[in-house]
Write a structure and sequence with these properties.
heterodimer, A: 2 strands, elongated, B: alpha+beta, six-stranded mixed barrel, 27 helices, 22 strands
């Protein structure tokens, strides 16, 4: 087990699920990532990440209504669990902590460059 | 093209369905489909389909793939112990039903085991030769003008020689030229030794075990003889016979060049000795003007076997044989003789060949036996199915509980299959003992059976038996298992005890009807077969066979024998003849009247002047032969049919006319009334008595005696004075006829036995069903009784439905077996019984009586029960 640490792509997917709430599903997530970040990911990568996240109890899923659009198959909507929110918060807090710990000069030096 | 008609590649969809876990499948399919739709719009159909396929393959990841169902298999395995235990308990609880099942199955199984042994033994014939699948026999088709061709296992020596010389692709070949019986003289003792002339390729074609001697040269030189170890022991006891010279009574000398192990039982032909073919050739060449032995048309007593090279196909040889036959047939305008190959493995299977060298069973016999036993085992299997379904009422609750606890359909299914297999394996054990009882009975039915079969129990056979029992178990258990595993858990638990759950099962009734139809058909067949047998024995052949003893001459001087026999006062008349007529064997020769182009076969018996009066043939016109048979045969006595064949006229008109037999002119001196020289199933055709002393093989003695054993003793003593080498071989005419028709009696025994078995099985099944019905309707019966029904009316009520089933069975069986016998089995027979009401109805009445007793006894018991007792307990 990797504990609560999120991989970079997993975090991206998790955030996207939040963005799309309450209608986050496989293809939708993939398209959203494409439009927001310009990253071209395959369906199977998205599904693999979703599967991991669900195993870590960060998200749950429910089937929606069947539509004609998908060959009669129902969509599986993903939502972030409370534990998922907590993990996102923790990751963000860790980031902020690290951001805040970076000395001002670093940015200035870089800026001048 | 509308968008809807475009689909993702079908194979990719299937692949996904196949590997993907069910809980993920729907979402994946949906996502892929949606993505596919978008791709069609953006990138076109081709790319979309390609992408779909790629994605399906990409999705093949550990988390999407189904787990192997090892766990499920494991459960089955763990549960096996439980299935076994519950099955044994349920078998023990229902002692009557289990006994009916086990006994019924074991009786029919024992017959099946017998047939399995027979079939496996027949198939094992000749397999001991190395490369047996490349060994073939040359067989012959003989066609005279446009008559039906006859087939022979034998062929001509010419064919054999031409094959050896001209046909490529043959690894080895062997020629057998006629068989012989030699009287070997050693010291003052004479031993008859039989065998065949065999060419030197013998040990290259066959793998008989040569104990001593060189296989290459043993049969090469003239006057060499190879004897079996058995014969060696008989002739020389312990001393080594190799290189010794055997002297025959007629003065020939043979040098022993090899000792071969006695041919194993699984060889289709057997021999006591083999003399080199070179010997035969040398002897024939002594008289160069006589060349009949090597003629193309001399196909009667020679055999040719070839072993093909591995690269050669039999068809290639066949076409060469055809070419040789065509070439040789050009010389003859009447007879067409065609040779072809017959695989070694086919020899035991094909019994329609005349002049067989040894044993042959015939695949028809095997098929009939297998078919009949299949019917018997079917009947016993039906019992199991029937009773299991009937009883499943009680098992429904068990199934319900199992399902609630989590058993799947396949679990329930395997549970009941296990139960059926337990029953069938226990039946197998019992059947195995029964087999030991019926085996000797079967072998003693016909001498041919005893010759052909040992029926030893071998390990591989036991294995077949077990596999067979399991197959039977699965088949008999399949229907109840399917039926029970289909039950809905809730229904089974809620309604257990209600018969409505099973009311749809008309299947049971169908099975019962089939069982009784089969039993009836067997009984009817048995009684028809018996009647035909009795009819054949009592048939008026047209001459008298009483007290006629036929003695085989066995190569002795007929005059000496006649002298010896005539000393005995009880022997009142003596005649000499070629064959024992009316027992199936015939001699034929070419027969013509005025038209040289019109010829037919004249069946004949070469007789002396005493034969016709002794056998009491009726002369319609003319006179009997007079005096000794002349050197130049010039007189003949014909039957009426022979006159009709050539329109010679009435018997009186025919006298003193001339006919041609084998190109010799003969004067008709008498005409006998038609009689059955063949078997009675054959038509009477042209027949003649020839006054022909060269073929006296049989002596017919009319015996008048009050003390038969002592008379027989005297006759045997007389024989021994003339011939002390060959054992006395004689048989009364009537006994011989009885033997000739033994196929009917064997048919009767076998079918009768099977009828007995099917009836007992069907009756047991009926008993089970009626016990069951009486039990389940006990309350109903009691209430009816309380309300005033009489016992008789109750019996009628319960028995009626079963009796109906019996009626239906009779309705099917009677016309069916009548049809089968009337237009299939008996049609070929010239003299046959007409099938009467007695044969058809006796079986039906028997079955009805047995059925009524079975049902009646059970229902009577139920009807007699005290209603107070049965209704009290709820």
């Amino acid at each position: 087990m990797k504990g609560t640490n999120l991989g970079e792509f997993q975090e991206l997917v998790l955030l996207t699920i939040g963005v799309l709430y309450p209608e986050a599903y496989g293809v939708g997530i993939k398209e959203e990532i494409l439009s927001k970040t310009g990253r071209k990911v395959t369906l199977s990568t998205v599904h693999a990440a979703l599967n991991r996240l669900e195993k870590k109890n960060l998200i749950t899923s429910d089937f929606g209504e069947a539509t004609k659009m998908r060959g009669g198959k129902r969509k599986r909507y993903f939502t972030i669990t409370a534990f998922g929110i907590k993990t996102l918060n923790e990751t963000r807090a860790q980031r902020d902590l690290l951001w805040n710990a970076i000395p001002e000069q670093v940015f200035q030096v870089n800026w001048q460059l | 093209m509308s968008k809807k008609s475009i689909h993702p590649p079908r194979w990719a969809e299937r692949l996904l369905e196949w590997y993907c876990r069910p809980e993920l499948l729907e979402d994946l399919q949906g996502d892929l489909y949606e993505y596919f739709d978008r791709n069609i719009e953006n990138k076109g159909e081709k790319r979309a389909r390609l992408n779909y396929a790629i994605d399906v393959i990409k999705f093949f990841k550990p988390y999407t793939v189904k787990k192997l169902e090892i766990l499920d298999q494991l459960t089955q395995f763990i549960m096996f112990k439980n299935y076994f235990k519950t099955s044994v308990r349920s078998i023990a609880r229902n002692k009557l039903f289990s006994a009916i099942n086990v006994i019924g199955l074991s009786i029919s199984m024992s017959v099946c085991l017998l047939v399995i042994s027979i079939i496996s033994e027949t198939l094992s014939y000749d397999k001991f030769h190395s490369g047996y699948d490349r060994i073939h026999r040359v067989i012959t088709e003989y066609q005279f003008l446009r008559e039906d061709p006859s087939h022979f296992a034998s062929t001509s020596l010419l064919a054999g020689q031409r094959i050896q010389e001209e046909v490529p692709g043959i690894e080895a070949s062997v020629i057998f030229a006629s068989n012989y019986g030699k009287d070997i003289q050693i010291g003052d003792k004479v031993y008859p030794v039989s065998g065949r002339y065999a060419s030197e390729g013998f040990f290259d074609v066959f793998s008989f075990n040569l104990l001593q001697g060189n296989p290459e040269t043993a049969l090469k030189e003239p006057n060499s003889i190879v004897i079996t170890d058995e014969t060696a022991k008989r002739l020389f006891a312990e001393s080594n016979p190799m290189g010794k010279t055997l002297l025959t009574k007629s003065g020939d000398q043979y040098i022993v060049t090899g000792i071969v192990e006695k041919p194993p039982h699984q060889s289709h032909f057997t021999f006591q000795s083999l003399i080199s073919y070179a010997t035969y050739k040398a002897k024939q060449n002594e008289t160069p003007e006589e060349n009949y032995w090597i003629l193309w048309s001399n196909i009667w007593s020679n055999y040719v076997y070839v072993k093909l090279q591995e690269s050669t196909l039999p068809e290639q040889i066949d076409s060469r044989l055809q070419a040789i036959s065509d070439e040789e047939n050009e010389a003859s305008d009447r007879v067409k003789i065609t040779t072809s190959l017959q695989p070694l493995s086919n020899i035991m299977m094909r019994s329609d060949l005349s002049n067989n060298i040894g044993k042959s069973i015939g695949s028809e016999v095997l098929w009939v036996m297998a078919g009949l036993t299949f019917i018997v085992i079917l009947s016993a299997g039906f019992n199991y199915t029937n009773l299991s379904i009937a009883r499943s009422l009680r098992r429904a609750k068990e199934v319900g509980v199992r399902k609630v606890v989590g058993a799947t359909r396949s679990h329930i299914f395997s549970q009941f299959i296990v139960e059926a297999i337990i029953i069938s394996i226990s039946a197998l054990i019992l059947a195995f003992f029964l087999l030991q009882l019926i085996k000797p009975q079967f072998l003693s039915l016909l001498p041919e059976f005893a010759d052909s079969f040992l029926l030893k129990t071998e390990t591989s056979l036991v294995l077949y038996f077990i596999v067979f029992a399991i197959v039977i178990g699965v088949m008999a258990g399949a229907f109840p298992a399917i039926f029970l595993s289909k039950l809905n858990a809730a229904n089974a638990l809620k309604n257990a005890g209600s018969t409505r759950l099973f009311s749809k099962v008309n299947f049971r009734k169908v099975l019962l009807v089939i069982q009784f139809t089969l039993s009836l058909a067997f009984i009817i067949s048995a009684s028809i077969g018996y009647k035909q047998y009795k009819y054949a024995l009592a048939f008026d052949l047209g001459f008298k066979t009483e007290n006629v003893l036929n003695v085989r001459v066995q190569g002795n001087d007929v005059e000496m024998l006649e002298n010896a026999f005539s000393q005995i006062p009880e022997v009142t008349e003596i005649a000499k003849s070629t064959l024992v007529v009316s027992t199936g064997s015939t001699y034929g020769s070419n027969f013509k009247y005025e038209d040289p182009m019109d010829s037919t076969t004249l069946y004949y018996n070469g007789v002396d002047e005493n034969y016709i009066p002794l056998m009491k043939h009726e002369l319609l016109a003319g006179i009997n032969f007079e005096g000794e048979a002349p050197k130049e045969e010039n007189e003949i006595i014909l039957n009426e049919e022979a006159l009709r064949r050539f329109n010679i006229g009435t018997p009186q008109e025919a006298l003193d006319k001339y006919v041609e037999v084998n190109d010799d002119k003969m004067r008709i001196i008498g005409v006998v009334r038609d009689f059955h020289y063949g078997k009675i199933e054959d038509k009477v055709e042209a027949f003649g008595f020839r006054h022909y002393s060269a073929q006296y093989y049989i002596m017919n003695l009319k015996v008048r005696s009050t003390d038969l054993p002592s008379t027989m003793n005297k006759i045997e003593n007389a024989w021994n004075q003339v011939d002390d080498v060959h054992p006395f071989d004689a048989e009364f005419y009537d006994e011989r006829i009885e033997k000739a028709y033994s196929n009917f009696s064997v048919l009767f025994y076998i079918v009768g036995f099977l009828a007995f078995i099917t009836i007992s099985i069907a009756t047991m099944g009926l008993l089970g069903m009626s016990v069951y019905t009486a039990e389940t309707r006990l309350k109903e019966i009691s209430i009816r009784k309380v309300l005033g029904a009489t016992e008789g009316s109750l019996v009628k009520l319960l028995a009626r439905s079963f009796m109906w089933l019996l009626c239906i069975a009779a309705f099917i069986a009677i016309p069916l077996s009548y049809f089968v016998f009337d237009s299939i089995i008996l049609t070929d027979m010239a003299n046959r019984i007409s099938i009467g009401i007695v044969e058809l109805l006796s079986g039906v009445i028997l079955i009805f009586i047995i059925g009524f007793i079975t049902i009646g006894s059970q229902t009577w018991k139920a009807a007699k029960a005290n209603p107070a007792q049965t209704l009290r307990s709820e």
